[in-house]
Design brief:
The structure is a single chain. The chain has 393 residues and is of the alpha/beta class. 36% of the residues lie in helices and 26% in strands. The strands form four sheets. It has an eight-stranded mixed sheet with strand order 1-2-4-3-5-16-6-15, with helices on both faces. The chain has a four-stranded antiparallel sheet with strand order 10-12-8-13, covered by helices on one side. The chain is elongated, with a radius of gyration of 24 Å. The structure holds zinc ion (2 copies). One zinc ion (ZN) binds next to loops.
Length: 393
Amino acid sequence: MDDFIKDEILSLKDEMIQIRRGFHQYPELGMEEKRTSENIARRLGELSLEVNTSIGRAGVVGLLKGKNPGKTVLLRADMDALPIHEKNNVPYRSRNEGIMHACGHDGHMAILLTVAKILTAHHEDFSGRIKFVFQPGEEGLAGARFMIEDGVLKDPQVDAVFALHLMTRFPIGFVALRAGPLMACMDAFTIKIKGKGAHGAMPEEGADAILMSAQVISTLQSLISKEVSPMIPLVVHVGTIHGGNAFNIVAEHVELKGTVRTHDEILRKSMSERIDRIVKGVTTALRGTYKLDYQFGYPPVFNDAAMTGLVKDVGVQVVGAEQVIEIPPVMISDDMAFFLREVSGCYFFVGAGSAEKGFDQPHHNARFDFDEDALVVGAEMMAHVALAYLKNH
Ligand SMILES: [Zn+2]
Ligand SMILES: [Zn+2]
């Protein structure tokens, strides 16, 4: 293992923390990362990297060339924040009211900029190329897909992709990963149910859309318990329900919005028909009609076995074998899936939680924050993963 990396990351730790806090103070929502991407482009430019901006709208790419030609490895960091009003009372608290880096993407950017700086200084020590990719709109807006459409995987053609996500549910010093399916798809549906309005005291003259929606919601759960094998993880979740106008009126309209999560591509493709069948059956039985709008969003995140093995080996050297853990799949989603569908690679977690220091809040929480020591682990991991890939391929 090249010891210079650890030393140099430690010498840049304070700077990395300042970069992270700078991003934290000025968070921007997905696909609107203007200030953020300008900041990144400037920093990459100062390293004399070949910089491309406006890839996938707000995306930024820095290309670093090693001593000799070789494979191209892509390292990705996401840039967007969330519509959350920060409740932390820290000096680097968000100054953009109502917007907050509550998922750790500020840390991902600081890590990747630091890795870019260190590997640029050592570009004579490796062959091949490294694409530093700063991606907009991870939180539901599929920024990765826009970057792919704008050619981020070409010219030069990318041979492997890697990214990390800081995670407070894993303690500081841990790396968590798995080969195969890691995260679920993120598909969405809207169900519009139509009944017939009437006086609440004379229900026989109407058709109650609220009753229909109640039956639809509970019958949808039978997909999980009675229709799909219990060995296949599946979430069918209704998150919003809107309908009805007054206590004494039979509701004519109800709208439900929900999401489907699974790692299984075959099951995934069948879910719109299954949901359609249930909604159709229930509403027809209760004298109503319906409209189902089903949207396929992020695919499942799938990690290549060999690339995951490479990350694991690096993890063993960086944090020690006891602190590299293989985890079961999770039901969250991430548009890193679009990259991993095109090119083999690995998405892994870096522990960022610390109960003693009070960093124990979940992601997307208004009090979310993470242990900045995780930045060092993350930077070490990313730098070594890139070098290990280029060395071995
Ligand atoms: Zn998030
Ligand atoms: Zn995230």
